[in-house]
Design a protein that fits this description.
Elements lengths: L47 E2 L10 E3 H7 L2 E13 L3 E3 L3 E3 L4 E4 L1 E13 L5 E6 L1 H4 L2 E2 L1 E4 L5 E4 L14 E8 L6 E2 L6 E3 L5 E3 L10 E3 L5 H8 L6 H13 L13 E5 L3
Parallel strand pairs: 2-16, 4-17, 8-13
Antiparallel strand pairs: 1-9, 3-7, 3-12, 4-5, 6-17, 7-8, 10-11, 12-13, 14-15
Helix pairs in contact: 1-4
Length: 265
């Protein structure tokens, strides 16, 4: 909160509010949960997903359609979070090396992979969150006066800032031209207060398709995913993700780039 109002960065088709001053969100405890642990008392801090879009589709999908439509699903330690200013896109289309105006950055999440639930990924990966998708996070990550990341908005029982050092899971998609890993509209996941898997809290109109699942630990999630096979529902979802959030959306800031907002001269 800033004063008595909540600041949000709104851009592209919206009016960008540059009058907000970033301030630190509430501190939260570091979360460490192994693959087979249940009964934890701390839960992963995850920003909620907010939107004013009407997707006109169900926001839940089957667990197997979710798992098999991604190129990889990983669980690991969040080692770093940083803004990415380049490449930047003007009006969601043209890519520029230098932005002559305001830059709404993309976000890179550096994850040290503990377990590849799908895709055989090992080591450390950089997961890109496009500028458009980042704007729906609440609390919202904004650049502080010293260039650091400040999360704007009050933490709740269901939402909070991403914390370096905590465990984090993600379904990831390969961007075909650059080979970068992109979140591409997916929801991040972690554990709840008793050690079960939880995804980012989201509004019904958030366009974020999350797997419908009963309460389960990460180990149980892994075992259920091992039984999944690719079928028409997972192929349909993969195309839907690409159309809404990926290359077929023809909007690079949705999945890859920062956004350059030209200033009027």
């Amino acid at each position: 909160m800033v004063g008595n109002r909540t600041c949000r960065a709104v851009f592209a088709l919206f009016v960008f509010n540059s009058g907000c001053t970033a301030s630190a969100a509430e501190d939260s405890s570091e979360v460490v949960v192994s693959l087979d642990t249940k009964g934890q008392t701390s839960q992963t801090s995850l920003p909620a997903i907010r939107s004013t879009s009407d997707c006109s589709t169900d926001s839940s999908v089957s667990l197997c359609a979710w798992a098999m439509s991604a190129d990889a699903v990983v669980w690991g330690t969040l080692k770093d979070i940083r803004f990415v200013d380049s490449p930047a896109s003007v009006k969601g289309e043209d890519i520029v090396a230098h932005c002559d105006g305001h830059v709404e950055p993309a976000l890179d999440l550096e994850i040290e992979v503990d377990h590849a639930l799908r895709g055989g990924v090992t080591g450390t990966v950089l997961l890109r969150v496009g500028a458009y998708q980042k704007q729906y996070f609440y609390p919202l990550p904004l650049r502080g006066q010293n260039g650091d990341i400040r999360w704007i908005g009050a933490s709740t029982a269901d939402s909070g800032p991403l914390l370096v050092g905590q465990k984090l899971g993600a379904a990831m998609h390969r961007e075909p031209r650059t080979g970068l890993w992109s979140l591409m509209g997916e929801s991040l996941f972690g554990n709840d207060s008793v050690g079960n898997v939880r995804f980012q809290a989201h509004s019904l109109d958030s366009c974020s398709e999350q797997p419908s699942h009963a309460s389960m630990t990460l180990a149980q999630l892994r075992d259920k995913m091992a039984q999944c096979v690719s079928d028409i529902s997972s192929e349909d979802r993969k195309r839907r993700i690409s159309t809404r959030w990926g290359p077929e959306s023809l909007s690079v800031p949705r999945y890859l780039s920062a956004l350059c907002i030209k200033t009027n001269k």
